[in-house]
C-alpha cells in the first residue's frame, strides 16, 4: 500500500515523520520486542532527527529496544561534514544514551568501500540471523531520482545477492559510498520517503506520476507500506486529481 501525505512546510513534515517513526517503533516492540530503523542521510532528515530527540517523541519512542542502522554512508571519517553518521550523531545520538550495541554505522571511513560493504553485510546477517528485515527504512530523494546511494544507471541497482554494496559516484564530492541494496530496502516492512523543497518538485512529479521504471526511487517496494511525506513546495507539481502511483 502506498500513502502520500502533503504538509504545509518542512517543520510540519518533520513532526509528522517523527510521529510515524514513534508509531512504527511502538508497534514493532509490541509485536517483536525490538525496533530496527534504517536511517537516511542528506539534509532533509535533520528536522526529523532533532524532533526525535525532543518531547514528546523522545519520551514516546522505546529507545531501549531500538537498533539504528544506516541506509547509506559517504566514505568519510565519522566527524567529516559529509558523514551521515555525523549527521545522526549531532542531531540525535549525542542527546541519547544508547549503547554501542544498538548503533550500527556503516564502517566506511574512506579507505576501502568494498571491505566496508562486506563488513556491513556481515553485521546485518549477524544481527538479523539472516536477511535484514528493517521495521522502517527512512529514505530521501535526490533530484536525479536516486535514493540511499542508489543512483540512476548504477550497477548497484542490479545487485540482488547482497544487502550492502560499494558505490562509485564520481559526480559527487564524496565519490565512494556504501549503500543498502534494493533487496535490503524492499525487505523492510515499511519505507518512508521524506522530501522537502521546491527543488524536488519536478523529480517528485516524475517519480510519483511519471512513467514507472525510470528512477531508483521507483524501485523501492517495501513488504507492507510505502509512505511518501512531502511538504507543499515539493508537492507543487503533482497533479492533484491523479492518484500517486509509484513504480506500478
Ligand atoms: C545521502 C542520502 C541521499 C539523500 C538524497 C536527498 O547520503 O545523500 O542517503 O539518498 O537522501 O540525496 O538528500 P537531501 O535530503 O540533502 O536533499
Give an account of the 3D structure.
The structure is a single chain. This protein has a seven-stranded parallel sheet, covered by helices on one side. Strands 4-8-7 form a three-stranded antiparallel sheet. The longest helix has 23 residues, at 10-32. It is globular. It is built from seven helices and ten strands. It has helices spanning 10-32, 46-52, 57-60, 84-91, 113-128, 182-186, 201-209; strands at residues 2-7, 35-39, 66-70, 72-74, 103-104, 136-139, 164-168, 176-180, 190-195, 225-231. Bound molecules: 6-phosphogluconic acid.
Tell me the number of helical segments per DSSP (H or I, 4 or more residues long). Answer: 7
Q: Which structural class should the secondary elements be placed in?
A: alpha/beta
Tell how many strands the DSSP assignment holds: 10
| Rg from Cα | 17 Å
Summarize the helix and strand pattern as letters. EHEHHEEHEHEEEHEHE
Side-by-side strand order of the widest sheet:
1-10-9-6-2-3-5
Q: Tell me the helix content.
A: 25-40%
Global mean pLDDT? 95
Shape: globular
Major sheet summary line? 7 strands, parallel
Poorly predicted regions are 242-248
Strand content: 15-25%
User: Which ligands does the model contain, each kind named once?
Assistant: 6-phosphogluconic acid
Termini separation (Å)? 11 Å
Amino acid at each position: 500500500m502506498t500513502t502520500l501525505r502533503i504538509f504545509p512546510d518542512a517543520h510540519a513534515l518533520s513532526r509528522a515523520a517523527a510521529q510515524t517513526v514513534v508509531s512504527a517503533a511502538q508497534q514493532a516492540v509490541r509485536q517483536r520486542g525490538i525496533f530496527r530503523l534504517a536511517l537516511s542521510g542528506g539534509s532533509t532528515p535533520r528536522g526529523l532527527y532533532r524532533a526525535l530527540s525532543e518531547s514528546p517523541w523522545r519520551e514516546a519512542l522505546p529507545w531501549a529496544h531500538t537498533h539504528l542502522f544506516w541506509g547509506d554512508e559517504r566514505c568519510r571519517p565519522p566527524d567529516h561534514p559529509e558523514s551521515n553518521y555525523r549527521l545522526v550523531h549531532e542531531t540525535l545520538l549525542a542527546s541519547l544514551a544508547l549503547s554501542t550495541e544498538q548503533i550500527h554505522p556503516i564502517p566506511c571511513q574512506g579507505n576501502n568501500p568494498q571491505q566496508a560493504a562486506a563488513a556491513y553485510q556481515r553485521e546485518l546477517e549477524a544481527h538479523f540471523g539472516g536477511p535484514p528485515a528493517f521495521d522502517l527504512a527512512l529514505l530521501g530523494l535526490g533530484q536525479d531520482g536516486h535514493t540511499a546511494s542508489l543512483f540512476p544507471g548504477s550497477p548497484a541497482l542490479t545487485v540482488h545477492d547482497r544487502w550492502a554494496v560499494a558505490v562509485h559516484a564520481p559526480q559527487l564530492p564524496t565519490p565512494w559510498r556504501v549503500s543498502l541494496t534494493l533487496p535490503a530496502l524492499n525487505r523492510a516492512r515499511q519505507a518512508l520517503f521524506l522530501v522537502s523543497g521546491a527543488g524536488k518538485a519536478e523529480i517528485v512529479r516524475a517519480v510519483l506520476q511519471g512513467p514507472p521504471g525510470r528512477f531508483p526511487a521507483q524501485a523501492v517496494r517495501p513488504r507492507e507500506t510505502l509512505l511518501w511525506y512531502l511538504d507543499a513546495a515539493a508537492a507543487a507539481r503533482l497533479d492533484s486529481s491523479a492518484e500517486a502511483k509509484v513504480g506500478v
